[in-house]
């Protein structure tokens, strides 16, 4: 069963996903001159001030650096000037506790923004030792507060809770930055250290800690449970944490403190509930989870979020203000930003969670279709409410919504629901949304992948209809017998390696193109279209340059396209164009040679697929040779 994924590890602008515009950098001489001027006038004085002997100067500089680091251009320059090294060597051991606390927060932000490179650098610099040292100090402070009969100051508590919050959220950021780091964090020793600070916080009292720290605890549990079944098992077997997780849904319902269970808390609670239910979930629970998530984010104001996240962009006077004014502006900005980010994250996770719920529902239906009860409430949520929600959020969260739509369309196929018959012109709205992404997809690979996935799913949805309805729908979409559409897909497939240097991402993109081509080729009444696609797919199968994964997928596509001589294109194309001989003389030798290079010890699953595909190909050739 698919686990829900909270966030993409390659997501850009993580601290401000709604920020518009491109980062201000380049390689021209004027750009380099501007970089040098900015470094000299702004960056170097700040970094020098970070190493001042006066604590207040260091604190002011750190606040300014944290603020500037949210801008991609400024962050690039700060990192080039060894910001991370200064933090590690000086600020994490500063005599001023507030500086230590904020330094961990800055490291977290940098990891969230820069991902793998910064995460790996910190991990190799033994950041875990600094984190666990922080846990030890925090646990001691928690014990002191509990045993102290006199009232600890609000400021001391605030600093302690911020300290723990930054440590825990840094761990989550590191784990999201690298699979290998996640694996190391999930080993028994480190996990026990992590569990102990969580237990100490819960024993202290979840209702005594700030909402942001409570959310960070939930976020960590949700994030790790999204990635690891072993984590779910281990934390479930812990007496304190297991009971806490088990009681979370009821705690959410009975809690009257909205400061503790805000929008994000509710969404995260539903996410944790989903992960720990796993295969025991039923459609009533699925419906309840989706309804609770949608209710939690229903009143979130996207316009307000965007305005509060754009405060830094719009405040050009910040650099000119004196220290007192800067400090006040930073405090005000941070408060607004944190509130906005909480609400923004609640929407992001809500979309990811709903996407996972849809996938889980499809799996449930396929596994237990005879016993699965589909209620009217369930159908209303999935066929009426969710498409409307997706439409509302599509502009601000495009790549996420595309993944959600993809899953929903495949679920519709599984359930036998026709999107073309749903109320409120839902399909027309979806198709216009897809068409309007033509330009946006050129700048965002996530959008391109999502858009192609949805087109593929839509075409699959079309094919479950009768022949006449299929042609009518495709004509309405202007893609029936549309040679230009097919040629564009083929050319985009061929040009993918020039656009994307990452091999895995390139293969992923090509898989989407193949899915679209394979589906279009299997639709009757388009003999010329089938011929073009068929010849192209055969040329890919005969090429030594085609990656093994694609050889497997394209071969299986051929089985789906040409399974029956009664299809109108089989005779004119497969037989008359000599596809059988091409398979025997060119494809079989190439696949045999390529599949030999797959090492069973390195990729056992791919080796099994290669063997199965090759055997099926030989059977397919024999079948087609004797087909009447």
UniProtKB/TrEMBL annotation:
PANTHER family referenced in this protein's UniProt entry, alphabetically: HEAT REPEAT-CONTAINING PROTEIN 3 (PTHR13347:SF1)
GO annotation terms (biological process): protein import into nucleus; ribosomal large subunit biogenesis
SUPFAM superfamilies for this protein: ARM repeat
Gene name for this UniProt entry: TPHA0B00780
Stretch list, region Disordered: 1-35
Transmembrane segments: none
Family under the similarity heading: Belongs to the nuclear import and ribosome assembly adapter family.
InterPro entries the record matches: ARM-like (IPR011989), ARM-type_fold (IPR016024), SYO1-like (IPR052616), TPR_SYO1 (IPR057990)
Organism phylogeny: Eukaryota, Fungi, Dikarya, Ascomycota, Saccharomycotina
Official protein name in the record: SYO1-like TPR repeats domain-containing protein
Polar residues bias (residue ranges): 23-35
Coiled coil: none
Domain SYO1-like TPR repeats: 400-627
UniProt superkingdom: Eukaryota
GO molecular function: unfolded protein binding
